[in-house]
Design a protein that fits this description.
The complex is a heterodimer of chains A (289) and B (243).
Chain A: H1 12-49, E1 52-57, H2 61-76, E2 81-87, H3 89-100, H4 104-108, E3 113-119, H5 124-137, E4 142-144, H6 147-189, H7 191-199, H8 204-243, H9 256-286
Antiparallel strand pairs in A: 1-3, 1-4, 2-3
Chain B: E1 16-23, E2 32-39, E3 44-48, H1 55-62, E4 70-75, E5 78-79, H2 85-92, E6 95-98, H3 110-120, H4 125-138, H5 154-166, E7 172-176, H6 184-199, E8 203-207, H7 211-216, E9 221-225, E10 228-232, H8 239-242
Helix pairs in contact in B: 3-4, 3-5
The chains are: A alpha+beta (289), B alpha/beta (243).
Chain lengths: 289, 243
C-alpha cells in the first residue's frame, strides 16, 4: 500500500531520528576505533616484547662490563636462548639523547651495563633458567622480563576496551530510547492518520509497517551521515598516530572485525529502529478495538 | 452512476444484528440498553433522536470504535467482540463511514483521501484512478482532485468524506449527519448516492437531525430515546422514492 503518512520531508520527527542516529553512530565509531586499535597495539607490543629479557648490571663501568661478559657467556650456554648480545654503552647513550640532549652529562652518567636476551620459546621455566644463570655469574644483575609492565599495560588496555564497548552499548541504548520517544511523539502527531487507516480496514501489521519502514529509512540515512562524518575523523586520528615514534606507538592496524563492526553500525541502528517502532505502534493499535 | 454497476452480493447473514446490546462509557450512566434489532441487506433507515440520545454511540458500535458493554453486536453474522483483529479489519472494509467531522487526512489530496480505502484493500491502481476520478466528478469536485482538505469548504470536505465512504461499494454505510454542511441541491445529489447504493443491496443508516430530509425520503426511522431504539415508519410517501 502507498504510504498514507506524510513524507519524511514534512516530518520534524524524521529529521530528529536521523540526526540523533548520525551523532550516535559517530560516537560508536570513535569507541569502536578505540577498542579496535587498543587490541591491535597490545598485540604489536606483545609480539615485540614477549620472549625478550633485559639484564642490567649496575656499578662502576669496568666492573659492570666484566660482569656482563660473564653473564653473556653463562646465558649463551643455556638451551632455549636464541641469541644474546651486550648493548654497547654508546648505543645506550644514544638512546638517551632524545631525552637529555647531546651533552657531556650523558657520558658521565653511571649507566648500567645492558644485556639483551632473546628466547627461542618464551616460558616461565626458560626465564627462570636464564635468571639463575645470570645471578650466578653476576649477583648484582637486575633482570626485567617485561612481564610486569606489559601486564599492567594489558590491564589498562583491557579497561579502555571495556569502556569503549560500554560506550557503544550506551550509544545503542540511547538510540533505542530515542526511537521509542520519536515514534511515540510521531504517533501523537499522526493519531488521526492511524485512526483513519484503522477505520478503513487497514490491518495492524500494515499500519505498523508504515511507521517501522519509515523509521528504518531515517535510521539508515542518519547512520550513513554519521559514517560519512566519521571518515575524516578516522583519517585525522590515523595521521596523528603516524606522527608518533613507531617505537612508542606502532602503526595502527585495525582488524577486519573492526571494519565489519563499523559497517554494521547503521544496520544495527536500522534494526533497532524497526523493532522499536513496530512494537510501539503495535501497542497503541492494540488499545483500539 | 456507472461506478456502482454491480449489485452488492447478498451476505449470508443480515449486515446488522443487535441482541440485548448495552453500552456505557466507563462508570458513567448507561447510554444504550437492551437493544435488539436486525437490519437486512438493502435496507435504508434514518437514525433519529435528540442530541445526546445515543445516535453516535450506536454508530460507534457499528463501525467498531467501541465494543458493547452488554449483549452482542453481530456484523455480517460475526460477533464483533469475539472476532480476531484481522477479522475486524476485514469487517471494516465492508463498511463505509461518514463522520460528522469528516476525518480527512490533511496531508493527502482530495483524490488520495478518497482512494485510501481502495488502496488499503489492495485494489489495482488503474481501477483506483478510474473509480476515484469518476466518483469525485459525480460529487461535483472535478478540478479539486489535488486540493488538500485545508483549502476545501465544509461542504466540499463533506463530499470528499462521502466519496471515501462509498468508493469501495461497501455492504453497510453509516453516515452521521452527511448533509449537514451542504446546500439542498448538493444534499439531494449526495442522498441519491446513498439511495443508489441501497438499491444495489447496500444496507444504509443515515443519522440526521434534518427533518426535511426525513420527510422527503420514504425510509423508516430508527428512533433512539432514553437508551432504547424503536423502528418508526417512513414519514414520506413512497411516491417520493420514485421521483
Amino acid at each position: 500500500m502507498r504510504s498514507a503518512l506524510p513524507s519524511p520531508r514534512q516530518s520534524t520527527m524524521g529529521h530528529f531520528i536521523a540526526g540523533i542516529v548520525a551523532v550516535l553512530v559517530f560516537i560508536s565509531g570513535i569507541a569502536l576505533t578505540a577498542a579496535g586499535s587498543i587490541g591491535g597495539l597490545l598485540n604489536t607490543w606483545n609480539a615485540s616484547v614477549t620472549g625478550t629479557l633485559t639484564v642490567q648490571i649496575p656499578g662502576p663501568a669496568a666492573d659492570a662490563d666484566k660482569a656482563v661478559t660473564s653473564a653473556l657467556h653463562a646465558v649463551q650456554a643455556i638451551d632455549g636462548v636464541k641469541q644474546a648480545h651486550i648493548v654497547p654503552r654508546k648505543e645506550a647513550q644514544e638512546l638517551l639523547k632524545p631525552w637529555l640532549g647531546d651533552t657531556q652529562l650523558i657520558a658521565d652518567l653511571p649507566l648500567p651495563a645492558l644485556l639483551d636476551v632473546e628466547l627461542t620459546a618464551p616460558s616461565a621455566q626458560s626465564i627462570d633458567r636464564v635468571t639463575a644463570a645470570v645471578k650466578a655469574a653476576a649477583p648484582a644483575a637486575l633482570i626485567d622480563d617485561h612481564r610486569v609492565w606489559l601486564n599492567r599495560i594489558a590491564e589498562f588496555a583491557s579497561a579502555l576496551s571495556y569502556i569503549a564497548f560500554a560506550l557503544i552499548g550506551l550509544s545503542l541504548a540511547a538510540l533505542t530510547l530515542t526511537v521509542i520517544f520519536a515514534t511515540r511523539a510521531s504517533l501523537t502527531e499522526y493519531t488521526s492518520v492511524i485512526e483513519v487507516l484503522h477505520l478503513v480496514g487497514a490491518r495492524d501489521s500494515t499500519i505498523a509497517s508504515q511507521f517501522s519502514w519509515r523509521a528504518v529509512r531515517q535510521a539508515l540515512w542518519g547512520g550513513l551521515i554519521g559514517l560519512i562524518v566519521f571518515g575524516p575523523a578516522l583519517l585525522g586520528l590515523s595521521w596523528f598516530a603516524k606522527r608518533i615514534d613507531p617505537g612508542i606507538l606502532p602503526p595502527l592496524t585495525l582488524p577486519l572485525a573492526y571494519w565489519i563492526g563499523l559497517a554494521t553500525l547503521p544496520i544495527a541502528a536500522a534494526v533497532i529502529a524497526y523493532g522499536v517502532a513496530r512494537a510501539t505502534v503495535g501497542r497503541v493499535l492494540r488499545a483500539m478495538v | 452512476m456507472a461506478l456502482f454497476r454491480t449489485k452488492t452480493k447478498e451476505p449470508d447473514a443480515d449486515p446488522i444484528q443487535l441482541e440485548g446490546v448495552a453500552f456505557q462509557y466507563g462508570n458513567s450512566p448507561t447510554i444504550l440498553s437492551d437493544l435488539t434489532l436486525s437490519l437486512p441487506a438493502g435496507s435504508f433507515h434514518f437514525l433519529t433522536g435528540a442530541s445526546g440520545a445515543g445516535k453516535t454511540s450506536l454508530l460507534s458500535l457499528l463501525y467498531l470504535t467501541n465494543l458493547p458493554t452488554g449483549g452482542q453486536v453481530r456484523l455480517f453474522g460475526q460477533d464483533v467482540a469475539k472476532a480476531s483483529r484481522n477479522r475486524r479489519a476485514q469487517i471494516r472494509r465492508n463498511l463505509g463511514v461518514v463522520f460528522q467531522d469528516f476525518r480527512l487526512l490533511d496531508h493527502l489530496s482530495a483524490f488520495d483521501n478518497v482512494a485510501l480505502p481502495l488502496r488499503v484493500a489492495g485494489v489495482a491502481e488503474d481501477t483506483v484512478q478510474a473509480n476515484v476520478s469518476e466518483l469525485l466528478r459525480w460529487v461535483g469536485l472535478e478540478g479539486l482532485f489535488d486540493a488538500p482538505p485545508e483549502v476545501l469548504s465544509g461542504g466540499q470536505k463533506q463530499r470528499v468524506a462521502i466519496a471515501r465512504a462509498v468508493v469501495g461499494q461497501p455492504k453497510l454505510i453509516l453516515a452521521d449527519e452527511p448533509t449537514g454542511n451542504v446546500d439542498d441541491a448538493i444534499a439531494e445529489r449526495l442522498m441519491q448516492l446513498f439511495v443508489e447504493l441501497h438499491k444495489l443491496g447496500t444496507c444504509v443508516i443515515v443519522a440526521t437531525h434534518n427533518e426535511r430530509l426525513v420527510e422527503r425520503y420514504p425510509f423508516p426511522r430508527l428512533h433512539i430515546e432514553r437508551g432504547a431504539v424503536s423502528v418508526l415508519p417512513a414519514k414520506a410517501r413512497p411516491a417520493t422514492e420514485e421521483a
